[in-house]
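Continued from yesterday's entry.
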Amino acid sequence: MGTTLIVTLIVIAINVLVIGFVWIMHSGELADYRAVLEALPTFLSGELARGGLLSYPSFRGSYKDCPLTITPYSTSRYNTGPDMVGICLESPALRAALRVVRKDSLRSGVALGLWPFGTFTAGDPDIDKLVRLSSSDEELARAWLSAPEVKEQLRRLFSLPDDGFLLLELKPGSPGRARLVMPRHSMPGGISRERLLPALQALYALIHAGS
């Protein structure tokens, strides 16, 4: 009986330690995301939801005539929690699902592996050397990618250093959504006006190109 009790106490102690470690890590992650997002209301129209003990913070507002959300985003297929920040604009003009992933990122395979459509090339060397592409409608996507404004904005976004934007995701629907994803670690001091506003300008231009 004494041995059984000792074993039970050891098991309980190990579980408490594991839960405590996970909680400390999660609390630190929540604090990191709050630090990244908390400056947004100072230069964007909207509100920051700081989240709670288990929920992540998020920002909801608008950019020009588009509803805007900025939230934690996960590229993990194992649902291990968010590792990115997603900048999302709503747009009714999107007609095909498209994912654009920077080619030189170590995460590009994972990002495309979570996407249900096959890969293709744009047929433009300037674009194909920067990104990998996947779409629900390759013909429609190629036509969109051929627009000079689209090419210009894609080069603007994906020619940044490797700690810049990882992927662009366009999804049609009611409403359609265009999401630009960037690593959290690339913004240790938070999302600055100088970094975010040019990205929003490019994203806005992309979803209205050819519409």
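--- second protein ---
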Amino acid sequence: MAHAHASVAVDIHLVSVEAASHYHAFALIHSLLATLIAGFAIALGFPHLPVRFAVSLEFAIGLVALACLQNSWLRRGLVPKAAMEKAALRHARLTYAHLKLKARHDRPLLLLYCAKFERHVEILAESRILEPVPEKTWLRIVEEFKPHMRDRREATAYAHLISHSVDALAPFFPVTGVAAESPAKPPHARRNWLWRRV
């Protein structure tokens, strides 16, 4: 990353996370659902059970489900794809906003964001970066990133992601000629799913 900063007049950040969210809300939702299903099953299958025992059994099943869903991989397996995409998009933008607060004022900001569990990669940048560099360039970079991640060659994938981004930026942002800072604007996005669309 130090080489990238020395090669182009852009503040480049690579952020790779295991997951964009802990999804704790889904553990609670599914444990409550398990409790309700257990209640219906007990009421229909064992109608003569004492009410206090039936409620206690239902409550115990709910606690067991909640305890099992503390396992992150089991919990994440119950998350819908739409919720995963929203979580990745939200976390990427929050990360960009956090970096923007600390970014250098003399260089535009570029965020290379990857959420591995969601299989999501996104490039967030200011308009002064995305205007000179065409969209097809970023899409090509993302497409070249996919096979390395599919093959679990993460170090190679990130190295290529950074180097190709630097190559795309170098003609427009040489180190000796930094453009004047433009007014802050919402980040533009270039995003694509990783493994699913291959």
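The first helix runs from residue 2 to 7. Residues 177-184, 190-198 have pLDDT under 50 and may be disordered. Will compare against the first tomorrow.
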